[in-house]
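Record format v2
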Amino acid sequence: MPMNQQIHLVSRPSTEAVTSNFKLISNETPALQDGQVLVRHHFLSLDPYMRGRMNDTKSYTAPQALNQVMLGGTVGEVVASKNPKFAVGDKVVGMGGWQQYSVVDANQLGALRKVDTTHIPLSAYLGAVGMPGVTAWYGLVKIIEPKAGETMLVSAATGAVGSAFAALSKARGCRTVGIAGGPDKCKYAVDELGFDACIDYKLHKDAASLSQALKDACPDGVDGYFENVGGMVLDAVIQRMNAFGRIAVCGMIAGYDGAPLPLSYPALILTNRLKVQGFIVSEHMEVWPEALKELGTLVATGQLKARESIAQGLEAAPEAFLGLLKGKNFGKQLVKLI
Amino acid sequence: MPMNQQIHLVSRPSTEAVTSNFKLISNETPALQDGQVLVRHHFLSLDPYMRGRMNDTKSYTAPQALNQVMLGGTVGEVVASKNPKFAVGDKVVGMGGWQQYSVVDANQLGALRKVDTTHIPLSAYLGAVGMPGVTAWYGLVKIIEPKAGETMLVSAATGAVGSAFAALSKARGCRTVGIAGGPDKCKYAVDELGFDACIDYKLHKDAASLSQALKDACPDGVDGYFENVGGMVLDAVIQRMNAFGRIAVCGMIAGYDGAPLPLSYPALILTNRLKVQGFIVSEHMEVWPEALKELGTLVATGQLKARESIAQGLEAAPEAFLGLLKGKNFGKQLVKLI
């Protein structure tokens, strides 16, 4: 069996996550048991939710265990199989973690899924046609429930979720506005991702200033908001929500590293009769087939062109992950492992 | 025509509302036109929403105009009629405002409604079998959607809305917990209103302390919360919400007088996949018949025994209203006008 490199979580962050929370380990992959499959990972997905798992606090799932392989989505190729349903050469998506190889009990429901790379690149199954894409789909379709002609807004607009959100929202006839950090991301959002407008939050020192910019970009107000960041951005957006607006809360990355960030004007939930709802996409597996079908079509037909930031080699994963938390990535953050 | 006393709003509060914002005026009631009815008010309802109308800020309705009769719900008796649908002696509920008499164009849809006082006292149509009762019903039934065995929580528990909430929640087989101010109110909530437990928020100096008390009173956590107050209470409650909990936001009386009160931990909306939704009961007239039928039955059968705080005489209204904003009332706040 091949030698395997892994990254373990070896300590928990006190405030900001740092590279020394992680450690690179080498060991041999174990021999396969009946029903198991050995997968060589081509790409590892880095996602903001991983930051939450690094803490030992009450959350929607158990924390990442110390001195174990960091969890994470992976795509790769079957290189050895003791499972009749999987053959060497099959392209698969799974939760292989921060490592080069994984041994998967492929009979376990949902552990490993074969994917077709004829029209869709393998890496897209970690982004637009994967968990981030379905996340955008669920928040938009099931929580926001957009109507044609309404205004939809998303923060972290050029990320994996934001990119998919734009394509899904435009396909429903909505004015679609993004919030992103820096002129390059904003230009890309409008030129490539199909956003009608994109606001650079870095130009604004406070919520009042950002809120004014939102007023200009959303002259009819905001009907649906997909929240990825929280903090100042949420304070700015909630002041622009229309009556009966819907906010799908997917992430609050701005507060992941430090003290809890308050919401300054909760009374607007009442005065504007808003619905604010949090969700975790992995709890809604029933929608994945429908969502993946629409997302796959959007990618295969070029309507969803999701950009990727690719770090090279497993040892680059910690640095790339910390950059993701600071918005240094531009598009879906991946680590290429081959 | 009889002389009429009215209370006008003559100035807007800068922070706290004060009695000098109001002025007592005397004038003659105008002669009736065809279709109009003259109603002598027996009771005026005082409600927290009125504080919002005193401000000249963007909200869900236009502000109360200066130098006009303060708006408000009233019950009374027809004393003169030029409308064939209403006869002298009819008991009616309407929005007569802070005055002794009102002239109502009774052909206007929803302006005046005849009520039956055989089994339900007239004043109840301003409380349990009126707007506050329907408010409790809508938040519980349409937003929280309780399941038997779940834990329901309401703030301002002994008020008109809280009392109705308790009866409706108990009727659905839920553990029902209240939050109120002071030992008398808490005792009354448990002894008379059917609450399983009631927490005195005045015993707690901060959200952490109140949250601990909630943990004891709600050992299985909170599945549904009906929010009337905001501020520290909401901060305490949100830490006790179960996964997939629902918060119906009806009022945030704690912040009505001053600076906006922040929500300290909005990230819990995500980690606990909460739904937080604001509503205004007057926008959901389609549910009123169903809600009033259930509430009327609960009152007529003694399952909903709503207490009233009755101020005597129109001139007592401003003081009683300011007291309501500070929680000095005990039960539904009314002004008796006859």
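Chain A touches chain B at residues 52, 58-60, 230, 234, 243, 249-252, 255, 260-267, 269-280, 283 (CB under 8 Å).
Chain A has two domains: 3-127+307-336, 131-282.
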